């Protein structure tokens, strides 16, 4: 019977231990990455739930739960619609947005509120569009964007900045 002797008897144990430790480290790193990703998703979900709650509060029959600050003031719906236009123009000027047209659409009575419909067309610097949309989302009184269409605007020789043309259908609300 022949006997085989390892030149380094601890080598197989060291290799197995190193492989096990490496595998454990990879699993820990993968777990940490998954936790970080899930935390980001949890924050996104909370933000989305808050936005959905705001939209439901304005568009649904939840108007009784909103404070008076959520509604546009005005003695008539037309004056309230003018206030919506003024707020939009002020927000646009703050973000260097050129609003080309604002069209006052039909005023409707929906779910116990007066719905002040508007349609706007404009051009925004690409860098300012996100801030403008965030301003719309967080504005008080509340403005709801129903439809938004974006496309690249034509470049001009005098202004090399990238611009986005947009069309939006939106509305504010007034208590009847």
Plain-language structure description:
The chain is of the alpha+beta class. It folds into two domains: 1-59; 67-174, Ribosomal protein S6/Translation elongation factor EF1B (Alpha-Beta Plaits), CATH 3.30.70.60. Helix content is 45%, strand content 27%. It has helices spanning 11-59, 77-94, 126-137; strands at 98-110, 113-125, 143-152, 163-174. A four-stranded antiparallel beta sheet has the order 1-2-4-3. The longest helix has 49 residues, at 11-59. The protein is elongated and about 105 Å long. The N and C termini lie far apart (103 Å). 15% of the residues are buried.
Mean pLDDT: 83
Low-confidence stretches: none
CATH fold-level label of the largest domain: Alpha-Beta Plaits
The global form is: elongated
What order do the helices and strands come in, and which of them pair?
Elements: H1 11-59, H2 77-94, E1 98-110, E2 113-125, H3 126-137, E3 143-152, E4 163-174
Antiparallel strand pairs: 1-2, 2-4, 3-4
What is this structure, in a nutshell?
By secondary structure, the protein is of the alpha+beta class. It has helices at 11-59, 77-94, 126-137; strands at residues 98-110, 113-125, 143-152, 163-174.
Record keyword descriptors for this entry.
single chain; 27% strand; 176 residues; Alpha-Beta Plaits; four-stranded antiparallel beta sheet; alpha+beta; 4 strands; 45% helix; 2 domains; 3 helices
